[in-house]
Amino acid sequence: MAPLRVLLRVPLIALVTILASSAILLSALVKSIFSAQQLRWRNAAFRWWGRSLCRVLGMRIEVIGKPPTGKFFLVANHVSYVDIILLASQVSCSFIGKADLRGWPLLGWAFRNADTIFIDRGRKRDLLRVLQQVRTSLNRGLGVLAFPEGTSSRGESILPLKPSLLEFAIEAEQPVHFVTLGYRTTPGLTGPPADEAVCWWDDTHFLVHFLRLLRLPSFEATLNFGSEPVAAEDRKRLAEELRTAMLATFTPIALPLEKEQGP
After folding, report:
1. Is 50 exceeded by the pLDDT of residue 1?
2. Predicted pLDDT at 126
3. SS (HEC) of the chain
């Protein structure tokens, strides 16, 4: 059944992504005529894309707390490319993502059309451009979501947050919302554990991992939104307080790997 599941899901993912991206692109083209409705149209198409792909992937979602709305700055822990699909199904926002997402097959086109703010983490000067784009998105009434760990992890814990992307919140004196996410499979029944089949944190090629994910009959996802946003006087302190708050609502996806014993 697993090979058949992959064959059925690939064209469905492509179809959903093309339809949603086309709708978002069309909303941008008619912005000058229907400016009052453009953002609503964009958000509806983006939410439909996320929810449709969650169904195609067999993702069962549990949401704890309430997602922020309007103009907000939201941070999340990061374990997989699936995070974007999951969050898109629940939150109307633009994402801050790595620059190499632009070149991903099909999904890169969707990310570009969905107001993704791309950042080149190898260039420190790129941060100024990104912060300006964050301001622009918020001024449009669109929320912004960042993954301040700076990389994906296996889900054992939450990595220390990099404070650079929090600079905008300090300058604008804007509290930061947070959400923690996690995944779960039933090893042996629905496939390998979530840290292998859903989390993408090692050097496994994307297509290899994606096919592994598509073979899963289903898996569970949890989003836990913080009840109150976090504020601080400087970005380093803000990063620390956000991580503390996130750890309080975070459920580990995997146990720590055993370290190899020396001779």
Report:
1. yes
2. 86
3. CHHHHHHHHHHHHHHHHHHHHHHHHHHHHCCCCCHHHHHHHHHHHHHHHHHHHHHHHCEEEEEECCCCCCCCEEEECCCCCHHHHHHHCCCCEEEEEEHHHHHCCCHHHHHHHCCCEEECCCCCCHHHHHHHHHHHHHHCCCEEEECCCCCCCCCCCCCCCCHHHHHHHHHHCCCEEEEEEEEECCECCCECCHHHHCCCCCCCCHHHHHHHHHCCCCEEEEEEECCCCECCCCHHHHHHHHHHHHHHHCCCCCCCCCCCCCC
The pLDDT score that the predictor gives to residue 263 is 47
Residue whose token pair is 């569970």: 220
Q: What are the pLDDT digits (tens) for 121-144?
A: 778 788 889 889 998 888 888 899
- CA separation for the pair 141, 144 (Å, rounded): 10
pLDDT band at 36 (very low <50, low <70, confident <90, very high): low
113/42 Cα distance (integer angstroms): 10
